[in-house]
Amino acid sequence: MVIQSIGRLEYIRGLKCRECGREYPPTKIYTCEECFGPLDVTYNYDSIELDRKSFEKRPKTVWRYFELLPVQNKRKIVDLGAGYTILHKCDRLAEVFGLRRLYIKNDTVNPTYSFKDRPATVAVSKALEFRAKAVGCASTGNLAAATAAHAAKVGLPCYVFIPANIELNKILQATIYGARIVAVNGTYDDANRLAAQASEAYDWSFVNINIRPYYVEGSKTLAFEICEQLGWQAPDHVIVPMASGALLCAIWRGFKEFQRLNLISDLKTRITGAQPSGCSPITNAYKDNTFDVKPIEHPSTIAKSLAIGDPGDGFYALNAIRESGGVGESVTDIEILNAIQLLAKTEGIFAEPAGGVTVAVLKKLVELGEISPDEEVVCCVTGNGFKAAETILDHIPEPFVIEPNLESLEKIIRQGDIKNE
User: Fold this and answer.
1) What pLDDT sits at residue 135?
2) Residue 149 CB: number of other CB atoms within 10 A?
3) Pair type for strands 23-24 and 12-17
4) Which residues on neighbouring strands pair with residue 163, listed in sequence order?
5) Residue 342 pairs with which residues in a beta bridge?
6) Which residues of the chain have pLDDT under 70?
7) CA separation (Å) from 276 to 282, 288, 291, 394?
8) pLDDT tens for residues 293-303?
9) pLDDT of 415
10) Nearest to 219 by CA among 244, 247, 257
């Protein structure tokens, strides 16, 4: 896809340490040399001239927000069409929960079927700017597929480090795009540590490690799109699944940037973080009223894409939740599976377990009175159910097997196994 020229290129100011504030030029660096804090991209906001009409003729991908993304050379953009996904109005599901305005931000329809295409398109493009000889990532599956697909588009070698117990579907997807898969006996955190060592040893550009400050910027486009699709308004409440916590932080940052540029007039959005109870270090800290995020040594959940026991952005996600007046909540595997089926049966959206987590948390918060019927709520569903088919298959009814005649069909109707409606 050809990216149209949008305007001036020098929108990036540099990198800034989230802890001590030290600033750096926008090079391939990802931790502060002073305090080892994480680095964030900063922009020359005064040079960015955008209004709502600016977007009318732009491509319906994340790159419609080019001035707010950290790539300077448009010729390096690797675009498979990620972003501008459907904001699905959920009339039937809203009725079940007693809400008046409920939406699903449906990122199951991205090119590799998860929201990870957003940061991957930015990170692989930035790696090209840095003249990377290879890219890669540590992943629980979704990022592996997204990185591999974007690497394939430009012919870059791609190396993926995964925990050995993730769903085979996710390995299949990354493999078919040409990635070399390294399955590590251990947790995601073990795979991530080894990947960090490998990126240093071989000078590979790992999108969520040494390209991370640029990579996370892609995810904030979720917030941009939600505002645009709601008529240039931020919703009352957004529920976001949390693994490392980076997605929640990026969405919160996106809302603030749109307010800063006067693209939305008001920001009263509550950001709620959702985790599976088998790996909920951030929500545990929220409930304990502390910022001390204690790692989970052995995550145990069907939501494997959220099974990060030591979340790198946990502290910052907690800060965003509390600053916005949101909530941290967790749900069991059974609640997740029930939510997947409820979302599919009422709205026709097939979510992976991470998406089930957000819908299950929504249900729980409504029942607890944390969400009022009048709130406008957006649930982020970040991955397609086919990515976790092996997990979900064990929890759906088996099909009826009958002979190919009406008598056999009438028999099961009489038995009440299926209804003649």
Assistant:
1) 97
2) 26
3) antiparallel
4) 184
5) none
6) 1-9, 169, 419-421
7) 10, 17, 19, 19
8) 999 999 999 99
9) 85
10) 247
